[in-house]
Every structure is written in C-alpha cells, then in structure tokens.
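Something for you to look into today, if you have time. Just paste the record in under my message, thanks.
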Amino acid sequence: MSASSNAPSEAMASIAEPLSRSAAPPQPKRWSRQVAADIVGLLDVVAVVAGAILPAFIYSATGGLVTPWLTIVQSGLVTAIIVCGCLANWKMYDTTAMHDFPVQPSRLLAALGLAFLAVLGLGNPFAMSQPHMWVWYAVWMSASFTLLLWNRLMAKVVLANLTAAGRFETRVAIFGAGVIARRVHDHLLGEKLGITFAGVYDDRDGQDRLNAEGLAVAGKLDDLIAAGLKGHFDQVIIALPQAADRRAAEIARKLEHLPVSLHVVTHIESDLVDASSAHRVSSLGPVGLLDVKRRPLSGWQPHVKRVEDYLLGGLLFLVTLPLMALIALSIKLESRGPVLFRQRRRGLNQQVIEVLKFRSMTVMEDGAEVRQVTPGDARITRVGRVLRRFSMDELPQLWNVLKGEMSLVGPRPHALVHDEQWSEMLERYANRHQVKPGLTGLAQVRGLRGATGTDEKVRTRMEHDLAYIKEWSLALDLRILLKTVWVVLIGRNAH
C-alpha cells in the first residue's frame, strides 16, 4: 500500500489521539457546583447574623448595656434570609461561571438595605425606648456589609482556584459529528467555564469518520455507552439533523441509563421523548438544548444519601450484630455448608458486585441458571424458611451498604442471568442501575416483594424503580424504610 493511501488514516489518528486522551476521567476529585454555591450562601447568612451579634456583644461588654439578645438574633436571621433571597433572585449564586463568582458590592449593599427596611419594625419598639439601638443598627449594617464583601471576595478567589484545578469540571460528549458539534467545541474552547469538550461520537464508518467540520470521531455509540458507564462524561448532547428525529429518539432511549445529563438539540421534534413528561429547555453557548433527563442524585443529594446510608446503616449493623451471630450459629447447627451465600449482581453503572445473604437454601446458584424461589420450595432449609419469612437473610447486605456498594433504599439487585434476560425484554430496564441497589425499595413496599413471576410484574417493578430514581428525596427514603418494617412483619409475598 502506498504512503499516500495511508495519509487519511494517519491524519485521523493524529487528531483522534488528543480526543482519546481527553476522554480519560479527570484526576482531581470533582465537586458539585451547587454545593459550593450553597456553602457561599450559608456563609452569607453567617456574615449578616455575625454583623448583628458582634457589635451588640462589644457594646454590651463595654457599656454594661442589657442587650435584647432574642430580638437581635431574630432580626439577624430574618435579615439574612431576605438578603439571600434578593441575591438569589439577582443570580448572585449562579453556578455557570465558577471561575468568576459574582461579588458586585452595589448589589450586596442594596440587598442589605432592602432587608433592613423590612426588619426595622421588629426592633423599632425597643429602639424608641433606647435610642442607642439606632447606633447598633448603623454599626450592624456596616459590619454585615464588610463581612459579606469579604466573604464574596474570598469565595471568588477560592472558587476560581478550584475551577482552574478541575474541581468543578463538567465533561460534555456529543453524539453526531456535524455543525452542532463544532459550535459546542468552539464555544467551550473560547470560555473559561470549567466545561471540557470530551469528544465526538458517531456511527458512520470509513472516510466519513473524519468529517467536514474537522473534528475526529472518537468512537461509535457502543464506545460512548462504555465510556459513560465508566464516568468519563457528565453530559451527553445528541446533535443529529432534523430529518433524523426517529434515529435521535432511538439514541436517547439507549443513553437514558447512563449516569449523565442527557440533552438533544431543540430542532428535534417533541416525540423524541416520553410525551407524559415535561422537559426543560436550556442552552450551551449558541446551541439550544432540550433536557431529556438530569443526572440522578446531583448537588447535595448524593452527600445526603451517603450520610443516610452510613449513619442508619451503621446503627442497624451494630443493633443487629448479636442477632446475626445467632443466625450464623443456627445455620451451622442445622446443615453443612457456608453461613453466607454470595451472589454476583449488578450495582451502580452496571458494575458487578458480590451481594451477601445468609444461606437459606440447600443450593448456591450463581451461574447461567438461577431458579427463583416459589412457595413451598423444597430447597429452603428449616432455618432458611424463618429467615426468609422475616427477610433476615438479607441482613448481611448491611455490610454491602457500609462498603459503599449498596444503599439502604434503592432498586433491588437481581441475579446476573435475570438482569440479562429482563434487559432484553424491557428497553429501559438498565436505567435502574443509575443509582446503587438497595436493601429495600419503592417496589417492595408497594406489594412487589419476592419472585417476579410474570413479565408484567417485572415491568411494574421496573417502573417503580425508575419512579424512585426520578423522585428521590430523604423523606421518601425514610417513608420507605418505615413501611419496610410493616411489610416484613406481615410477611406478604415472603417465601
């Protein structure tokens, strides 16, 4: 083969090489932009309240003044809430440009002024009887403004440094090599937004992969899915021509199970996604986007859920440890074999984990054939029948929770062979793996505990799991945990 015939492939390889490197996961641990902005807001509250308390404390200590502390704290908190409300309305907590977090002293002063006008009535009766309180009001406003300004200046510097270090980096991949991909690429190169263009993916073969827009295609749809499951991207944009709306709909459904925010360009027709759901419209520079789904458990949510798992999971593990010791002894005394049954199941992002259970049967199935338990199943031991009746065979999974492989609440994991079978049967089944599997879940407390039995039961359970992921809240988790206690006690569908 001549050198000239190798030129296109060599050119494509030279362009694709930096793209493949950019697709590698970032080294620094990334933080949530929303959490960082909320911390700045919390410090703004502290600044306003401290501005109220410190002058009053100094005045009281030096002059022997009897200070109305309850009034001062009330006034400080109300003022802080109003100030933060004004700043939020004026987009002073905007997370799109963490490298240039807003300071704007004039708006800080305006927010304080409006808040002071609103709360003057709270302390005015006391101020009328003690005129020195007007001095406190003036010093309070001055102190709060100084502390607010100082907090904002420090936040601007700290957040800019964290952005430069890649702590708030958002990685965006594009499916569809064309004009939209070029626009997104050029916009991200020209802005210090902490957003990285992570590559273009397209299913076209051969010479078409080096497209006219000058961007090399890093892989096909399967490559995009594999990289997304490894956490290489935070957002995926489907950028296909308007004439390819049906194809875009297929791509969107195939990408829904990835733990990313999913968008399509807004010229796509509305039947691209489920018509029963409302979708927001956003933009990335010059590109208008339809938000198909947001990343599950974003902002504060993963931190809250992690604390929930470690605190409640750790407490339940310690409380049930003596019971688990008695169960282990009973299993050993009744039959030969291991105390624990280990079975491979899929966890977060379809990663295979080893789930622990107390052995309740005479078999240890974990291969190409796993037969679900049925009422009166002869494989269940005498001890196992009691354990399964009250779900005590699941207690060792508290260790999976403490290891970070599972959560207390989430979609229940299934044997690998069943996962593969149901993934082929239900297009959206894999979407369950966007969060960690749980000891209990929404489906289980709504009567879908135990063997699936029919295809319709599998579908209904999947719909409950997807609803849980979409509607997650701490309150929902706590309600499910409380309902689980009742479901276990009545023993419905337990065998």
User: Anything to note?
Assistant: The two ends are 68 Å apart (CA to CA). The CA atoms of residues 200 and 217 lie 5 Å apart. Residues 1-26, 269-273 have pLDDT under 50 and may be disordered. Residues 301-490 form one domain.
